[in-house]
């Protein structure tokens, strides 16, 4: 970034920080996560548990591909994880640079990336197993142009390679984990089967562990990494279309760290399916997709 | 390696079976949302007092502690040396204080006051039972503070996880899920931080994890550089029944235990004695 871009970015961050308090005074915004918005509901008459689980399965494919490629250079299929649907349909293509394995230099980050890959693979398998024949196949996923789009939305630059080095890898991971927490949290209220609910809570927990550990690393990474996180949070909040702020970057607020992405009541945010789609499509139209899902998600909520 | 012996790997069935006094299959009575939220409020009082005292030397205000608040034993300002650690501690304190206020607001007149809490003898007893006693002061230095925080955060995650699917109101579920999310962020950041520390801190943490698992029905993942997240072999977050949580905070696997450890007079509310 140029000096000028940096300073306008800082202004944006300050505005975002101060809006954290005011946004939360609006109260029940998180509770809005209980209901799908009209936009998403228009695509599907009734939203059943399988629809919700398939919605999060799409997100798990995205995360699992990212971490597996970063840790090993392999796609899920190459790593032995099926991307087929329960009806045998082949999974969509993954667009990513050649040799995506991240050249980690910190042993603890290398091992953490491997852990993240294994855990997201397990989430894919677990949801596929729960859904059985109803499981959707992997949608087409873009891990190349999507990151360029996201950093443009965040005013961070024009191009971004999350696989270039371990700092970039953390910023890439940052984009996904808080989002996963908000998506699961918004989905919980839609599930009627208690077993599915418990499973969704269990995955929600793990995504939040991931997010906490990644945000700690960004906090420790210094002002530039913190600034990047703040700009990405601001972009997610702008894209989501939620009323009030629903995203807080890593930094300092009143002398305290902001490692947790939460509201004034100390609660992590919930997002509706439509808000999640707005982010992962980077504003692309519902049903058509864009950004991370260039042909849209698979399933009824898309 | 003594670490593995000391902590016993947490969630393995053999660890549970080999420990005398470990609860059998827990009995879950019918619990109302108010019962469950008050149960959670007890845990939030504990966490808030721990963090606030660590950061400021003083605990919750009398407004936040309730009209018939019990005494808090121990808890002093930690001599933080690293600014980042102090900043993290402040956030933890802010969040847990916010949880107390939020739950008290949701519960209204049904909210229990803060029960008596012990932050001195409890940690000594926990360290002794975990195998690194006879004493442990989490307020003595910033690394020890993180070990103390570790004891609470994974536990909070399992407690909210177990309670969340028992809640009948969707609104309460949404509120609890938001607190649960924050506890899991805390747990993730603290576990990651501990993996960066030198011995003995990660060892202490794993010994405490072993203790939680022995008295609290497993639900533990030994912390290491390749196991930052606490989850089962399917990468699902752990869960505990209210009974299992009581055993952990009372630091006792004894059947029917109703006080001890961090709650010298027991928890306040309807969920106070371990049925198993």
Search tags:
heterodimer; A: 302 residues; mainly alpha; two-stranded antiparallel ribbon; B: 276 residues; two-stranded parallel ribbon; 2 strands
Write the layout of secondary structure elements.
The complex is a heterodimer of chains A (302) and B (276).
Chain A: H1 3-24, H2 38-41, H3 49-72, E1 94-95, H4 107-131, E2 141-142, H5 145-153, H6 166-188, H7 194-220, H8 223-240, E3 252-253, E4 256-257, H9 273-280
Parallel strand pairs in A: 1-2
Antiparallel strand pairs in A: 3-4
Helix pairs in contact in A: 1-8, 3-4, 3-6, 4-7, 6-7, 6-8, 8-9
Chain B: H1 2-7, H2 13-17, H3 33-56, H4 62-65, E1 72-73, H5 83-107, E2 117-118, H6 121-130, H7 142-164, H8 170-195, H9 201-215, H10 242-249
Parallel strand pairs in B: 1-2
Brief overview, please?
Chain A is built from nine helices and four strands. With 302 residues, chain A is an all-alpha fold.
Explain what this protein looks like in three dimensions:
The complex is a heterodimer of chains A (302) and B (276). In chain A, helix 4 (107-131) links the parallel strand 1 and strand 2. Chain A has one domain (3-280). The two termini of chain A are 35 Å apart. Chain A has helices spanning 3-24, 38-41, 49-72, 107-131, 145-153, 166-188, 194-220, 223-240, 273-280; strands at 94-95, 141-142, 252-253, 256-257. Chain A has nine helices and four strands. The longest helix of chain A is centred in the C-terminal third of the chain and has 27 residues, at 194-220. By secondary structure, chain B is mostly helical. Chain B has one domain. Chain B has helices at 2-7, 13-17, 33-56, 62-65, 83-107, 121-130, 142-164, 170-195, 201-215, 242-249, and strands at 72-73, 117-118. Residues 1-22 of chain B have low confidence and may be disordered. Classes of the chains: A mainly alpha (302), B mainly alpha (276). At the A-B interface, helix 4, helix 6, helix 7 and strand 4 of A face helix 5, helix 7 and helix 8 of B.
């Amino acid at each position: 970034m140029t000096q000028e871009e940096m300073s306008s970015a800082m202004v944006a961050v300050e505005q975002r920080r101060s809006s954290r308090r005011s946004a939360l005074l609006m109260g029940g915004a998180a509770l809005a996560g209980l209901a799908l918005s009209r936009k998403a509901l228009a695509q599907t008459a009734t939203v059943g548990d399988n629809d919700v689980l398939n919605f999060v399965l799409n997100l798990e494919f995205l995360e699992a591909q990212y971490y597996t490629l970063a840790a090993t250079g392999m796609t899920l299929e190459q790593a032995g994880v099926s991307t087929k649907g329960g009806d045998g349909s082949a999974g969509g293509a993954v667009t990513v640079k050649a040799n995506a394995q991240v050249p980690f230099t910190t042993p603890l980050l290398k091992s953490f990336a491997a852990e993240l890959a294994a855990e997201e693979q397990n989430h894919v398998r677990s949801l596929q197993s729960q859904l059985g024949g109803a499981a959707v196949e992997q949608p087409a996923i873009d891990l190349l142009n999507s990151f360029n789009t996201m950093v443009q939305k965040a005013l961070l630059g024009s191009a971004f390679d999350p696989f270039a080095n371990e700092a970039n890898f953390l910023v890439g991971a940052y984009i996904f984990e808080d989002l996963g927490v908000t998506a699961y949290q918004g989905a919980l209220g839609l599930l009627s089967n208690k077993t599915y609910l418990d499973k969704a809570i269990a995955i929600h927990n793990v995504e939040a562990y991931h997010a906490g550990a990644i945000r700690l690393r960004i906090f420790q990474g210094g002002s530039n990494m913190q600034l990047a996180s703040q700009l990405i949070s601001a972009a997610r909040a702008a894209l989501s279309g939620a009323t009030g702020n629903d995203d807080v970057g890593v930094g300092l607020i009143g002398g305290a760290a902001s490692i947790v992405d939460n509201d004034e009541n100390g609660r992590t945010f919930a997002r509706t399916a439509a808000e999640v789609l707005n982010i992962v499509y980077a504003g692309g139209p519902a049903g058509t997709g864009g950004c991370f899902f260039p042909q849209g998600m698979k399933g009824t909520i898309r | 390696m003594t670490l593995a012996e000391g902590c016993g790997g947490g969630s393995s069935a053999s660890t549970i079976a080999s420990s005398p006094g470990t609860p059998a299959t827990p009995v879950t009575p019918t619990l109302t949302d108010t019962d469950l939220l008050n149960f959670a409020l007890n845990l939030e009082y504990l966490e808030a007092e721990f963090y606030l005292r660590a950061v400021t030397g003083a605990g919750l205000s009398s407004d936040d502690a309730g009209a018939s608040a019990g005494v808090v034993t121990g808890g002093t300002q930690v001599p933080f040396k690293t600014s980042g650690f102090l900043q993290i501690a402040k956030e933890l304190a802010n969040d847990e204080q916010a949880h107390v206020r939020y739950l008290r607001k949701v519960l209204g007149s049904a909210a229990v006051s803060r029960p008596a809490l012990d932050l001195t003898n409890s940690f000594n007893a926990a360290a002794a039972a975990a195998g690194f006693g006879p004493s442990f002061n989490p307020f003595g230095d910033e690394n020890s503070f993180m070990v103390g925080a570790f004891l609470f955060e994974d536990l909070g995650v399992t407690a909210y996880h177990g309670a969340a699917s028992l809640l009948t109101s969707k609104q309460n579920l949404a509120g609890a899920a938001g607190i649960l999310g924050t506890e899991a962020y805390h747990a993730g950041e603290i576990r990651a931080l501990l993996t960066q520390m030198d011995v003995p801190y990660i060892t202490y943490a794993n010994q405490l994890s072993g203790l939680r698992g022995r008295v609290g029905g497993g639900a533990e993942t030994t912390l290491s550089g390749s196991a930052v997240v606490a989850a089962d072999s399917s990468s699902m977050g752990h869960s505990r029944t209210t009974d299992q949580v009581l055993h952990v905070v009372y630091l006792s696997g004894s059947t029917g235990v109703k006080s001890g450890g961090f709650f010298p007079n027991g928890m306040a509310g309807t969920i106070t004695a371990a049925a198993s």
